[in-house]
Design a protein that fits this description.
447 residues, Aspartate Aminotransferase, domain 1, 2 domains, 13 helices
Length: 447
């Protein structure tokens, strides 16, 4: 679709119709301090297409891509190998061009793969029912908090200190008008006592495992403490591959499981699009956000699929809607479904074990470097180390040597001075022995 700008006459006619003096009148509510003048940007007025392509190529050339360097970044987005068959299949025209199934009973192929996707998510998380995906893990978590508030008719949500701060900020933004959000104090590499924060006003406790520092959490005591007070436990998983090895949150007492599914079938893609997973218990299904594809039979007994539930405000009365999510991440969840189908249950287990083995070996080598301390006693494929100098400066220096060493905690919590020496390191199956050798050698020379 080409971009066709409005002409001055078009703008004048529109302004006259709505009674606005000029374009600035449309933005009068924006604080003057937030308005930036055109003169503040040193941009050329015009450039030819060839010049623009060259300029953008020069800018892109300054990036260090995940596939061109030893790559140890994670913190919610992980590099995994995606089989070529996944991209080949999702680029078939009937998949690539499909959009929201407004007449879903006609789109049997779309509904069938959504049904298979839901089945996979329910099995992975240990829950009874899953929806047809949401935007990403953070918005799924925010929707889970709203759902818990509706179910319990309570206002308070408690967020574990190990919840990814971007997820926590999304929850705070979405739930700002529906209740109260309490963040537990940050305790890197340790499990805080959430039970003491739970009271009769608590709708839910939100716990991530493995958490943002990589720590694996035992959810059972937290679930028991929450249930004793009539609250729900929302379990968050940002690295879905971990469920190929760890006990599913559903069997540990979680009432809702939200997750980021990017690791399976979807590349890093500069931060998106990703795919949010949402699963819960069957008795909560009427308050579950998003869509649900169901299996049925037609008038002559043939197997078919229907959009069983669709609880967004475009389909039902706004006051009855349980979600403002406008669509599901259709193509991304198809990629997830294809990749997981290719892996199978045994393949996912092998992939998870390979991830854990790689991370364990690297953690042992890094902790043997003078001044480096491993602070996560149990982890999957991501862990946190304390360095003898600010982690951000170390990461920047290593990037100059074409090594992407991980995510400094200070990038996620810029105002927490006591976290400046923490580095979050991820090692997936894509990390080689040579990559690990390069990181260890560089840190030995630098620290």
């Amino acid at each position: 679709m080409r971009y066709l700008p409005l002409t001055p006459d078009d703008r004048a006619a529109m302004l006259a119709k709505i009674g606005a003096r000029d374009v600035d009148a449309l933005f009068r509510d924006v604080p003057r301090s937030a308005v930036v003048s055109r003169d503040a940007f040193d941009l050329p007025d015009t450039q030819g297409e060839l010049e623009v392509e060259r300029a953008l190529s020069r800018m892109a050339g300054r990036n260090v891509s995940a596939g061109s360097a030893p790559f140890f970044c994670g913190a919610g987005a992980y590099r995994h190998h995606v089989p070529a068959a996944v991209d080949h299949l999702i680029q078939r025209s009937e998949f690539l061009t499909s959009y929201t199934p407004y007449q879903p009973e006609i789109a049997q192929g779309t509904l069938q793969y959504l049904f298979e996707f839901q089945t996979q998510v329910a099995l992975l998380t240990g829950m009874e029912v899953a929806n047809a995906s949401l935007y990403d893990g953070s918005t799924a978590t925010a929707e889970a908090v709203l759902m818990a508030q509706r179910l319990t008719k309570r206002p308070k949500a408690i967020l574990s200190c190990g919840l990814h701060p971007h997820y926590a900020e999304t929850v705070e933004t979405v739930a700002a008008l529906s209740g109260e959000v309490i963040r537990a104090p940050i305790m890197p590499g340790r499990a805080e006592d959430l039970a003491e924060l739970i009271d009769d006003r608590t709708a839910c406790v939100v716990v991530q495992s493995p958490d943002v520092f990589g720590l694996i959490r035992d959810l059972k005591p937290i679930a028991e403490a929450a249930h004793a007070k009539g609250a729900l436990l929302i379990a968050v998983v940002t690295e879905i591959v971990s469920l190929g090895l760890l006990e599913p949150p559903g069997t540990q007492g979680a009432d809702v499981v939200t997750a980021e599914g990017q690791s399976i079938g979807n590349g890093l893609n500069f931060g998106g699009p990703y795919v949010g997973l949402f699963a819960t218990r069957e008795n909560f299904i009427r308050q579950m956000p998003g869509r649900l594809s169901g299996e049925t039979v037609d008038a002559v007994g043939r197997r078919g699929f229907v959009l069983t539930l669709s609880t967004r405000e475009q389909h039902i009365r706004r006051d009855k809607a349980t979600s403002n999510i406008c669509t599901n991440s259709g193509l991304c969840c198809l990629a997830f479904t294809i990749h997981l189908s290719l892996l199978g249950e045994e393949g996912l287990g092998r992939l998870a074990r390979a991830n854990h083995a790689r991370a364990s070996a690297l953690a042992g080598r890094l902790s043997n470097i003078d001044g480096v301390e491993l602070i996560t006693p149990s982890f999957f494929n991501e862990f946190t180390v304390r360095l003898p100098k600010p982690a951000a400066s170390v990461v920047d220096a290593l990037a100059e040597r074409n090594i992407l060493a991980g995510v400094p905690a200070s990038r996620l919590w810029p105002n927490e001075r006591n976290l400046r020496d923490l580095l979050i390191v991820a090692a997936t199956e894509t990390v080689t022995d040579e990559d690990c050798d390069a990181l260890v050698k560089a840190l030995q020379e630098m620290l």
